[in-house]
Specification:
The protein is globular and about 65 Å long. By secondary structure, it is of the alpha/beta class. The protein has 11 helices and 15 strands. The chain has 2 domains: about 130 residues, Alpha-Beta Complex (Aspartate Aminotransferase, domain 1), CATH 3.90.1150; about 240 residues, Type I PLP-dependent aspartate aminotransferase-like (Major domain) (Aspartate Aminotransferase, domain 2).
Length: about 400
Amino acid sequence: MKRVTYLDSAATTPVRPEVLEAMLPYLGKEAFGNPSSAHRFGRAARAGIEEAKRTIAEAVGAEPNQVVFTSGGTEADNLAIIGAALAARDRGGPFRVAVSATEHKAVLAAAHAVRHLGGEEIILPVTASGLVEDAEIARAIDRGVAVVSVMWVNNEVGTVQPVRQLAERCREAGVLFHCDAVQAFGKVPVSLRDISCTLLTISGHKIGAPKGIGALIVRDRKAVEAIIHGGGQQFGIRPGTENVPGIIALGTAARLAAEEQQSLAPRLRELRDELERRVLAIVPDAVINGWQGERAPHVLNVSIPGTDSEALLMHLDLAGIACSSGSACSTGTVEPSHVLTAMGVPRDLGVAALRFSFGKDSTMEDVEAVTAALPKIVEKVRSLSTVLHR
């Protein structure tokens, strides 16, 4: 059977065997109960949830009662942005949010939703390396905002934001700071012990747990208003019967991610840097996006002039290589991603961007597979592009 090279770990990861094993009792007859029930089956489920809270809290430097489980990163981001805006409005504060231009679409769409609800959104510009500057935060704060949201690590180019500095600026001004740490957790050191971050998002399927489970760390319960309404679970911040197997999975995955981060990061960086070196040797006019600033170790975003990413992806997939595009197909045309556009990347390079992202199972064999396949693929795509654009 032909070996498949998977370099799309920033999109999702397989469920880890340890995580699956931890979930199984909560899927079967041992602890399947509703955690709100008083009988032994409910108590067993509740005990599992409480243990997962303790584990996740320890992993991110929070308190167990600050962990609020969600259906994933998207819901957690929406709860943070919309919930913070609604809570501020109810207190007579500013119904306005500020988010960076390179945020995940979950954050950007939540900011748009605040506008549709009658509030305002401020989109913070970024530098060529994707960084949000302190002066931009200051300008937003001067206008009055309920929450500022800047992601820890960008999911497309890997830019690492100065979270500590930005959070401190918000704390000094009495403004909530939310950070989407979905791509950061397990790849760079993530701890809230000495960072003034009120709201933090993590997601399970990026670290070896199943899809459909995430968490928002809420360090001040008055910071957010519920956006889903129902029972009183999770202090009423996120009601509904908890996804117990998913929560157990997230707890186990979070523990493993925190334990392994320090040893995993150098290995991922070595693989990333080696692939970057080889791509530039094969395609000397290739452009590394985000190279100007600090990048997380697992993401490489590269534009290959004279191509388009959709064609590159198709040929890479046929060669048994899975990665991602830096663009999105809309109404039959390829458009550059909002991240690259916000960073000032020219359109012709934006539509020619690929994202290779490494995970715990990545090896040098993956780098070698890309190196072997890329020359012919680039040549073919460039030839087709030349014919089509005559």
